[in-house]
Amino acid sequence: MTSEFSGAPGDFADGSPVRGESAAAVSVSATVSASAASGAVTLERLLLRLERERCSGEVSCGMEGRVLLSDGLVCRAESRRATPLAALWTPDGPVGEQPWWPGQGGTPEDAAGGAGDASPLQVYALTATFDAMALLLDTARSAAWPGRPDGGPADRGGGPGFEPVFVAGRLGRRTVRCKGVPPTVLLHECARLADRAGGWPLALADAAPVVALRHVHRQRVMLTAVQAEVSLAVDGRRTPAGLAAELGRPVVVCLEAVRALTALGLVERPVVGVGGPLRRRTRPAAGPVRPPQEPPVDLETLMRLRAALEQV
After folding, report:
1. pLDDT recorded at residue 171
2. CA atoms within 13 A on the CB side of 38
């Protein structure tokens, strides 16, 4: 899955909506490392502190992504695991191909190109921010999740997936951003999303394939539009994040659809091996068919049965 985030802060691939905003474009006034005498500061604690202090700048999450803040409010978040903002699907095609997209003549200023909260770019920018924020928080929390295919979190010995580092400064004018959201609100919503695991925690969003069940034990099933899209795209190989990239949907939206399909008995529940790789639930292999063994013949019982039948 491609992503707008490619590594170091300000280093973006061609076609990114924030291309041209480099590290030098941020007027650095201070660099605050997310560590303290009591130990490493988590991303949640750092965001809450920046909200209280009404800071502006960028929280770098290493290779995982970044969070942009203005006066303590989150106005953009990016994650390598999330669907890029430009790839989100609209009724008229991808966001990046719409006339209101900055690359197509639109303007990214003033809360994602619109004064109102319901402007198209504002809505999709907010959706992408929530999607990336949820995945960034999950990456920080599930570093020691067993069986991730990349091996990264397991190699860190259960430590955090990244060390968040805040760089204070003014955001670039070309930055596509949504209207600021308090980190408190984002953390609350992301926690609610994580609580509705349904067998599919966020850690499996890009780690476990979605496998459809061959037999449905229901006579009638009601699906939403997104659930129908996801069920039709399931191929037994792609993860929820892979399905999201294919459909142009946020990862968390597709993950919620997969959770619902699992509850309806249409998708297999993933199984994680303790300390081992992810594996799907499989039925035991059928052994050779053996003929049923006949019980030993009791001659006395047969004689009594014959006598009884003759008296009827």
Report:
1. 76
2. 3
